[in-house]
Amino acid sequence: MIRNVLSIAGSDPSGGAGIQADLKAFSARGVYGMAVLTALTAQNTQGVTGVHLVPPQFVADQINAVFADVRVDAVKIGMIANAGIAEAVAAALGDRRGIIVLDPVMIAKGGAALLAPEAVDVLTRRLLPLATLLTPNLPEAAALLRLPVATNRAEMAAQAERLRALGPAAVLVKGGHLDGDESPDVLATADGLYWFEARRVPTKNTHGTGCTLSSALAAELAKGASTDEAVSIAKDYLAGAVASAGKLSVGSGHGPVQHFHALWKESQ
């Protein structure tokens, strides 16, 4: 049976991040993708120049319309932008407990803020307890905990455990912002800590990597993988997408990854 996965996130008209990246990742991982829009952005590979928010009630209306008709096997939550949208998403999903991957999108690759400061409390209080898996990078983990950004593995592990204490079943803290050649991630679960090692890839084509990873995780969890299995599979998929990103010719800034690296022929 083909699984159905819903993304609740913002739009990226240049196609590399947000809803567009989520739908590409869902398709590449063999699940049927659906999308609820929380925001329209004006952005490209060089940065975000504008954000137009969807009214919270209409975000809820979109979610309710999908659930009223379609079996939803997993949900990925990305950009929620403000406290009102966070409250609406939490209320709409609260009675529909299932697989939820929460990617706390706070800052765009180019540095633009994508989450209002007052929304952090709502995100922490209402959405974190619903999450099957929370996937912050180092700055996002620090912002959620109101702590300095982790600079080593011990601090990463401690922050992952502190985040899990706030309610998520599991937390994957991504170490891409660490200094050095290594880019380790740490997964905190009820069974303990798991480390996933990776070498840093020298490329500027990293637009939408967080969106892509969280969507791949939602797809794998929907298909029945355990959390650690899903992380391993999704990280391998993303590594291939980043490694093949140079085959694309999209923009002059932080380019997108090649979501369909395993599906498109070299001659295309």
Automatic annotation (TrEMBL):
Domain Pyridoxamine kinase/Phosphomethylpyrimidine kinase: 12-258
Top-level lineage group: Bacteria
GO MF assignments: ATP binding; hydroxymethylpyrimidine kinase activity; phosphomethylpyrimidine kinase activity
Protein's GO biological process: thiamine biosynthetic process
UniProt keyword terms in alphabetical order: ATP-binding, Kinase, Nucleotide-binding, Transferase
Pathway as given in its UniProt record: Cofactor biosynthesis; thiamine diphosphate biosynthesis
E.C. designation(s): 2.7.1.49
A GO cellular component entry from the record: cytosol
One Pfam family named in its UniProt record: Phos_pyr_kin
Alphabetical list of PANTHER family matching this protein: HYDROXYMETHYLPYRIMIDINE_PHOSPHOMETHYLPYRIMIDINE KINASE THI20-RELATED, PHOSPHOMETHYLPYRIMIDINE KINASE
Listed name of the protein: hydroxymethylpyrimidine kinase
